Amino acid sequence: MRAMRTTRLWWRWRHNPLRRHDDTVEAWLVLAVWLAVVVGGGLAGLAAYRATDVTLAHQRAERHTATAVLVSGTLSSERADGSGLRVSATVRWTAYDGTVRTGSTLVGTGRKAGSAVTVWLDAQGRLTTEPPNSREAALEAGLLGFGAATGAAGAALGAGALARWRLDRRRYAAWDAEWNLVGPLWGHRTS
Question: Which residue, 26, 102, 111, 142, is the most exposed by fewest CB within 10 angstroms?
Fold first, then answer.
């Protein structure tokens, strides 16, 4: 029983007098596509995961909080679930070099002008968004890695399907040419 399974598994490469050159090409093509799907997709996913993880870790290390003063007040508003909305407002803060800067960021609603708010700054002292925490970063890196792996595997499968379609077209053309030669010889003539 084991020998039969092996024979069926490697049927594309075993000797057969009816095997055409296109059949051998297709056998190697299928093997190459599946290697590209498994290895190429895995490497693409791993590379995307690592690149995203490094970028987000750099953001977490570079960005930090600072206290800013709200320049103008915000209107009071709440959602149906009770959580306050965040709106864009102008804030003023002191940069590392001592210069006073002004910019726009999201703050909670219902704040009065002159109240202190926490803002996120990058390494140059400019306003930025809060970096993702380690759990959010791992999830984002994992999703991007999965997307890259899926994309690379899909591209390999698509290229393989296109190549097999071209091989099929070539085989159909060869069969048609052969039938045009042999078909008339098989025709039955009645008189």
Answer: 102
Using a cut of 0.90, tell me whether the model's pTM lies above it. Answer: no
Token pair 């995961």 is found at 49
Contact call for residues 103 and 129 (beta carbons, < 8 A): no
d(CA 106, CA 102): 13
> Tell me: the pLDDT tens digits for 62-112?
998 888 988 877 666 555 444 567 788 889 988 878 888 988 888 877 778
**Can you read off the two tokens belonging to residue 70?**
């709200």
